[in-house]
Design goal:
Blueprint: H1 26-48, E1 54-58, E2 63-72, E3 75-80, E4 84-89, E5 93-97, E6 102-106, H2 113-116, E7 122-128, E8 131-135, E9 142-145, E10 149-154, H3 155-162, E11 172-184, E12 188-202, E13 212-227, E14 230-232, E15 235-238, E16 241-257, E17 262-273, E18 278-295, E19 298-313, E20 325-340, E21 346-354, E22 364-376, E23 379-390, E24 400-412
Antiparallel strand pairs: 1-2, 1-5, 2-3, 2-10, 3-4, 5-7, 6-7, 6-10, 7-8, 8-9, 11-12, 11-24, 12-13, 13-16, 14-15, 16-17, 17-18, 18-19, 19-20, 20-21, 21-22, 22-23, 23-24
């Protein structure tokens, strides 16, 4: 397949003859004709110099013009002005042609930034007969079977990654989830849930050796249920009561990769859980992690971190240890799994267990699992469950608090 080039249609001279009417309305006629001429010239010039577009043809024959965003993990993301971002498996793409250069990274290649220069082809790409042709501007070309494509990313982003030209705001992805439950009757109740999950992996290009990863997670649940006093036939059927739910969580972690699979980490977290009588639990740690699976659509991490914790309980309440606050030294053991299934359905899960050395009874644990289902463009539907466990709550409080929530999620890219 030959390299495609973009040609602009040359502007041919236009000859117009304007005949002045014999009537006294010649000035008005000339103005109207001139106005129409300007409109036609503006429209024609815009068409002649319109920015060329990438084109894609699907296996069913449907065609779109727009801009290729990326190819990652066998999924093509193509932007259309009418449809927005369209995501389709690479196997369902018949032809693809770009007018802008892209970098093509093959599967099973683990390259550093230095070794990527000259080894990853960059140029306009064409897909036909299940084969990619990469045509660099300097000439020549390389053919890669579609089955061997790991990722395709625009040349500007690729060079920016290689030279480390990224600020703190670059590369963040994540989601924002909101959920509400309202009941208005004899008894009333309101529950509000929300969460923010952000991650920044550098480099963002699949196939380059990982350098660093930063995560930030915030979540909160607030609920208030009010039950009025109900007296029926002179007897108290229901006593007045008010119950409150207030659970807040925040954590951040920075990972620095020492090898393709091993990384060092520092983290910090803060928790507030009215259901456990916990006013504040703050924790700070440092340790090591291992990524036995590190793929764009399937990742699994194991982490071990030495951790300092401080637990503070509500005023007037003492923990199961007999004190209103306690300082703890322990180790945080964590496993996390993230998987993207067919139709872009995502599953995220993690479990953290924190045994403590100086006070054995004060161990804690937290587990979370959620499914994210695509709905429309960046809007998703999320089903999530979280269980927090505290080994030393005040008397009368349960050791664990379980949450099951659903909500609408907006994906941040």
């Amino acid at each position: 397949m030959s390299n495609r080039s973009t040609l602009l249609t040359p502007m041919h001279p236009i000859s117009l003859s304007i005949v002045e009417p014999a009537s006294g309305k010649g000035s008005l006629g000339r103005c109207t004709t001139s106005l129409l001429l300007c409109i036609l010239l503006f429209f024609w010039a815009g068409q002649a110099y319109a920015e060329p577009a990438d084109t894609i043809t699907f296996s069913d024959g449907e065609q779109l013009a727009g801009k290729l965003v990326s190819i990652l993990g066998g999924t093509v993301t193509f932007h259309s002005e009418i449809l927005g971002n369209v995501t389709v498996p690479l196997a369902k793409v018949k032809t693809l042609n770009t007018v802008q250069p892209f970098a093509v990274v093959e599967k099973n290649k683990r390259l550093s930034r230095e070794s990527a220069v000259g080894k990853i082809p960059v140029g306009n790409i064409s897909l036909e007969n299940r084969s990619f042709l990469i045509s660099p501007p300097q000439g020549g070309g390389k053919t890669v079977p579609a089955e061997q494509i790991g990722s395709v990313i625009d040349a500007t982003t690729f060079h920016r990654e290689l030279h480390g030209e990224s600020d703190f705001l670059y590369g963040w992805t994540g989601s924002v989830t909101l959920g509400v439950s309202l009941v208005e009757a004899t008894n009333s109740a309101q529950t509000y849930t929300g969460s923010v999950a952000l991650a920044r992996a550098i480099p963002t290009i699949a196939g380059l050796l990982p350098l660093s990863k930063t995560t930030l997670n915030l979540s909160g649940t607030y609920g208030l249920a009010e039950n009025p006093e109900i007296i029926t036939e002179g007897e108290i059927y229901q006593t007045a009561s008010t119950s409150k739910t207030n659970i807040l969580h925040g954590d951040t972690e920075y990972d620095r990769y020492l090898s393709p699979d091993i990384f060092g980490l520092v983290n910090a977290s803060a928790d507030h859980n009215f259901g456990n009588g916990l006013q504040l639990q703050q924790a700070y740690g440092a340790g090591l992690g291992w990524s036995p699976i590190n793929q764009p659509k399937n990742s699994f991490d194991i982490k071990v971190a030495l951790q300092y914790q401080q637990q503070q309980f509500y005023n007037g309440l003492i923990s199961g240890l007999g004190t209103p606050s306690v300082n703890l030294i322990g180790v945080a053991l964590n496993e996390s799994w993230n998987r993207t299934f067919a139709h872009n359905i995502k599953f995220n899960q993690y479990v953290t267990v924190t045994p403590t050395f100086n006070v054995i009874k004060a161990y804690s644990a937290v587990g979370n699992a959620n499914f994210v289902f695509p709905v429309y463009k960046r809007l998703n539907f999320t089903v999530s469950s979280t269980d927090n466990y505290l080994g030393d709550p005040p008397q009368g409080f349960r050791r664990n608090s379980f949450q099951f929530t659903t909500g609408i999620t907006y994906v941040v890219k």
